[in-house]
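User: Hi! I'm working on a homework problem where we have to compare a predicted structure to a textbook description. Could you give me the structure for the chain below?
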Amino acid sequence: SLAAAIATIELMQDERIVEQAAERGVFFAEQLDRLKESHPCIGEVRSIGLFGAVELVKDRNTREPLAGYNASSAMMKSLQSDLEEAGLYIHAHWNVLLLIPPLIITEEQIRQGFEMINTALRKVDQAIIG
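Assistant: Happy to help. Predicted C-alpha cells:
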C-alpha cells in the first residue's frame, strides 16, 4: 500500500541507509582491488556502490575465461560450492562472480565475506598455475 511504501522510505531516510550504503561501497571497491592484486585467476573487478563483479580467467594475459560464453565449468562449480560451504552465497554467471550484499551490510561483514572469497580463490589459483 502507499502508506507502507511511505513508511519504508521514511525509515530508510531516518536510518541513513542510502548514505551508509554509499560509504560501504567505497570500502567494498577497495576490497575488490585488493582481491585482484592477490589472485592471478582474476582478470578484472568492477563495482558501483555495493554491486560488484569478479571476472575469473585461466590466464590474466590472454583473458581466457574460466568458463565459456553461456556456460559454466567444473572449476566455477567447485568455487561456488566452496563458497556456499563457507556460508557465502554468491551468484556466478559464466566466469563472473556477482557480489550483491544487502545495503545494511557492515564493513566487518564485507571483510569477512572477502576473506571467504580470498580463501576459495587460492584453490582456483593453484589449479590454473599448476
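For your comparison, note the following. The chain has four helices and five strands. The longest helix spans residues 107-129. Good luck with the assignment!
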